[in-house]
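Weekly puzzle thread! Below is a chain. First person to post its structure in token form gets bragging rights.
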Amino acid sequence: MDASVFRGDTIAEVVRAGLVESVHSGHLVELNESGQIIKSLGSIHVPIYLRSSVKSLQASAMVRAGLKLKPEQLAVVCASHSGSEEHFKVIRSILADHKLDESAFRNATDTPLGEKERRTWGDKAPTQLAQNCSGKHAGMLATCVVNGWDTNTYTDPNHPLQQLIISEFETLAREKVQYLTADGCGAPLFALSLAGLAQAIHTITISTDPVHQEVVNACRANPLMIAGEGRLTTRLMRAVPGLFMKEGAEGVEVLSMPDGRTLVIKCADGSWRPMGPIITATFKRWGVEAPDENVYVYGGGKVVGQVVAQ
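Winning reply:
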């Protein structure tokens, strides 16, 4: 892929005292209630790795395959969790309910994602449970148990579970998945265009399919499980009624309102800095009351500028 195409357009500027000091480039697409594109920046048909932004789609495939979980359990399956004891307790309960333990995990090891949780963890060795995708992997394992599928090979792209996930992606996005590699956690990672990702999030939000409703409602009801204390996703989902939101590594963000309005962002440099300002500006245009998530620029302890969404 031509890197100049991937860099996209300017999606936010860092302005200090009236002068643009830095620029964030990338891609953005906004859909209205009907799923029509009303704003786009960059190349929204260029494929991107979706990372953890699509865990709700993966979870939908699991539920469709017969996985039955409590709402907080289903929410942590959709999570990039911070690694708190609350998260660990729920993940362990998924394993125990399906007569599994942590030895069944096939994900990578890591320390907690959350800053506070990582400090609490200290110098202990990384574990598979602490890795932020362990909820998803617990759900995948549980789905295998329900269906009598092999639990040792559930991360293989040709495994029945992963084939169902591909089908769910393609149905919701209305396009074929592209590229195949391993995500940081070890699960298969696919690519879709930003437009396809936006279509998928819009569709799952307004869907009357009981599977989609169960997944999205579980996330909405359990914002702590989806991310963690202090994180943007949890803060906004708590503050904005009906908001569905999920971040992915390397600067991917998706969010939608119950009426179907959808925003999907990919920051070309993988940065998170412009996300709050872009979302805040979008909510303002939508007439949605939400906390101020703008990022301000300081000089001598005083505000002298801010990150400005395009």
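Puzzle host: Confirmed. Bonus trivia for everyone else. The mean pLDDT is 96.
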